[in-house]
Amino acid sequence: MSNAELIDALAVAMDMEPRKAIMIRGQITWCDSNRGRQSGMLNLCAGLVSGGRLGRDHMLADVPNNFVRDRLMDYIVTQLEDDKKERAKKAVFPDLSAAELEQYSALIMKKAEENMPKTREQMISRIAGNKPLRTNSEINRVLDQADAMDGVDRDVDLTPQPGFGIRTYGRPGPIIRSVVQPGWKELTSEELRLDIGTDIDLDCDQVRAMIALFINGKGWTADQFRLTLGNVSRPDLTAFLIQRGPKEGIRDPVFQLAWEFFKKREALGLPLIDASVEISEDTAALQEGDANRTNKRQSTDGEGNSSGRKRTRRA
Fold first, then answer.
1. I want to staple 1 with a disulfide (CB 3.0 to 4.6 A). Which of 5, 49, 96, 308 is the partner?
2. 196: helix, coil or strand?
């Protein structure tokens, strides 16, 4: 179904007043027009959007169909009463089976929960972990970075783009800390053997999305991430995160360093999302692989807890 047909299907199934349907259409169109620093102006009465990322009036037909489907599913699972949800889903998504609808609903609900406003403590924890913040200016810098992280578009296509840029390894120099676990100073033997090349195959928006997905409040903090990159301050990382556009930030050292970080983790078979501070089977195997180089525990810089954990072998 077209974008207009999707909204009409919901309106008919819910016996919705025309004004309500017009408002939903306008809100979806406005959300799609609002990318980066460019956003349109929504006329709530007419449901029309003037201006936006395309540099002209934004129309419902300009909105990607999958974006409309996602927004309507979000409306159904978060706004409608329980006894109306199934009827609405079947009307708007007749192409999906019951199992597919259940899976789709769960995915959209999970994203809705992730996008819920976070408490001040959660925002600080995501950036600085349990590190004490001693001044108001430091707290403000942490909160600014949390806002910048939340503002990054995580839904960009992460398909590699070979030839986008070149990693020179001059300035900035290569990452000298381990990308396996936060706080590991010494490189594992596998990292020492890595050759990820010089072809930067991601654009700036893709790298920003990967940072926001990786720093998800469940594993690495933003401070642990930037300290692993090297001489990257909080304002440096924030300045990169707030930019928008595939080439915006291409000369920023954070761009090259973050690309190197994720490329190394990819080469080591380590995950992007849901990284855990616990030593997994994969990371334990990487650490164990250094047995011939050293029999001592991995050193840390106080940002991680790996030095106190017992190593294990794969079965």
1. 5
2. coil
